[in-house]
Design a protein that fits this description.
mainly beta, Lipocalin, 4-stranded antiparallel sheet, 51% strand, globular
Length: 281
């Protein structure tokens, strides 16, 4: 069924295929370098404030306004999206060149779907309060196995270089998990200017960096997960018009476009997806 699907037009496809700009500048490439400043009199080393950025819109595309988006990711030329709400949760795969829906799988009650991430030929999906992660085939989205974990499940992304899945639970802590077993293998607390930052939600891994939206805000954080330092604070406000926002819910979808400096941003019940880049504010 094509109605309401995320359609990617020729112009966007060309930009995706020909984008040769390495992820740089605003920190979209590599693990950002953290810095500190020293108080000359006291000799105290204080954390450097995060870089201020904004989401510059380059293209506007349709998005299913009925999708209560929880996870958003592009891998292997496929856009994966997961949604929440009990009895209405599903995960789907859409071809980025044709816009054709390749697969869709519903998540039965009592599960409330949350974040997803692709690990090679599999896809992990977490649930909100059920403490269950589901491993699926990345092509068919068929369930392969279930794994239990403690706490809530919010966002997921995969760091291939570190061979670990990064998971959020709404707190100030990001948990690292084994990509095969989903067992916890470490964690890091996120700090901005020395203060904790909680409500970390949907995640996107880009090389050594993690982007996380802060729930119920229009803010996206760029995080050095090596030490948990917030290196960038991105203002993504004003993407929807006031009438559109009145019918929609919060920002909750971040998908990096591979091989470029661009991202897709969307949200729960949003009628649009935006192709953006993060530029100095």
């Amino acid at each position: 069924m094509r109605s309401g699907l995320f359609m990617i037009g020729p112009r966007l496809l060309v930009s995706m295929l020909l984008a040769g700009v390495a992820l740089a500048g605003c920190g979209a490439s590599g693990e950002p370098t953290t810095s500190t400043k020293t108080d000359g009199e006291a000799g105290i080393v204080a954390p450097q404030p995060p870089e201020r950025l904004r989401a510059q819109v380059l293209e506007t595309l349709p998005h299913d306004p009925n999708a209560f988006t929880q996870g958003y990711e592009i891998a292997h030329g496929v856009l994966y999206e997961s949604t929440g709400r009990v009895g209405m949760s599903w995960v789907r795969a859409v071809d980025t060149t044709s816009g054709k829906e390749l697969a869709r799988m519903a998540l039965p009650p009592p599960f409330f779907g949350e974040g997803i991430t692709v690990v090679e030929d599999s896809l992990w999906q977490v649930t909100w309060e059920s403490g269950v992660a589901i491993r699926r085939d990345a092509d068919t989205l068929a369930e392969q196995k279930r794994v239990e974990y403690s706490g809530e499940g919010w966002g997921l992304c995969y760091q291939a270089e570190q061979e670990r899945v990064v998971m959020s639970d709404g707190s100030d802590t990001l948990t690292f998990r084994d990509p095969e077993t989903f067992e916890e293998i470490g964690s890091v607390q996120v700090r901005s200017g020395g203060k904790e930052v909680d409500q970390l939600n949907e995640l996107e891994c880009v090389n050594g960096t993690v982007y996380a939206n802060v729930w119920q805000t229009d803010t996206i954080l760029r995080i050095n997960v090596g030490d948990g330092t917030v290196t960038g604070k991105i203002d993504a406000s004003g993407l929807l018009t006031p009438p559109e926002q009145a019918k929609a819910d919060v920002l909750n979808g971040i998908a990096a476009i591979p091989g470029s400096e661009y991202f897709f941003l969307t949200g729960k019940l949003w009628p649009k997806t935006f192709r953006v880049r993060f530029v100095p504010q």
